[in-house]
Amino acid sequence: MPTRKISDLPVPCLHPRHHPPFLQVFPPGVYKHTCPACGTEQPFVVERLHWVDMPLGTRAHSSIGGHWERVPNGWRAQSGCVFPTPGGDATHVSYPDKPELHIQRAAQPEPPPIGDGAEVLPMVIADLQARSEMGRQKYGTTLRVNNGRNALMDAYQEAQDLTMYLRQKLEEEKRKKVYVVMTFETHNDGSTNIDGIYSSEEGAKSELARLKATLGKGWCADYDDMEVKD
After folding, report:
1. Closest CA to 221 of 115, 66, 117
2. For the chain, which ranges sit under pLDDT 50?
3. Residue 91 burial (CB count, 10 A)
4. β-strand 67-71 against 101-102: which pairing, if any?
5. Are the beta carbons of 91 and 124 closer than 8 angstroms?
6. Could you give the CA distance from residue 69 to residue 194 in angstroms, rounded to a whole number?
7. 223 within some domain
8. Contact, 222 vs 182, CB < 8 A?
9. pLDDT at 130
10. Any bridge partners for residue 149, and if so which?
11. Last residue of a domain, one of 48, 78, 102
């Protein structure tokens, strides 16, 4: 037999911590992440960026919603509380005069394809064959060159239809705004709790006022808006 199998396909590791963490803030440096399941080692680099060096007005955005704003004496939450640095769940910043810049995210290369899903090409071929057959039944022939039609105009009209369908889908996928109320410890950057999610800003403000009246020393409350799929 001229063809023989020389090895099995590698079994992909599905452990949730196979790749380096990407929603965790690390001090600048070079790191090596080891998968606790398969032992694969992946190096990554964290750039040297300092919270204190960022310009006034910079916003540090949280992975769970909300942000802190750079002020002369630290980082201010929307509730007015000021902290030395943003919380440990900060993933990226946006500058007042620059587009959003992602920071301190561990490099996370995509894994190689494992080939266990259905092949796409046969699906496309089947769709094209079905479309061709539909055209044959409608027009009495399949698509051929020099058929007396303006192919450019046909394509333009189809593109108009595509635009309409895309706009329809965008409308159907509209997102709505919700308001997230959070509580967090002023002495611990990483301790943030979501107290509730409200459909109106009035509801969030009411809950925020209640929390501020009941929270103990060392705790602060805030709220922020975020978009979710309707």
Report:
1. 66
2. 23, 98-108, 190
3. 18
4. unpaired
5. no
6. 19
7. yes
8. yes
9. 93
10. none
11. 102
Which residue, of 102, 120, 153, is where some domain finishes? 102
Domain of residue 92, residue span: 29-102
Q: State the amino acid at position 150 in one-letter form.
A: N
> Any idea which residue has 């920071």 for tokens?
103
Report the pLDDT value the prediction gives residue 108, as an integer from 0 to 100.
46
d(CA 148, CA 212): 75
Q: What is the pLDDT of residue 174?
A: 67
- The reply to whether 149 falls in a domain is no
The pLDDT value given to residue 153: 94
Nearest to 85 by CA among 93, 94, 76: 76
- Answer whether residue 124 is part of any domain: no
| Within a domain: 47 | yes
Phi, psi of 39 (to 5 degrees): 80, 5
Name every residue whose Cβ is closer than 8 Å to that of residue 193 and which is 6 or more positions away in sequence: 182, 183, 184
pLDDT of residue 182: 75
105 is written with which tokens?
């995210």
How many structural domains are present in the chain? 2
Q: What is the number of other CB atoms lying within 10 angstroms of the CB of residue 78?
A: 15
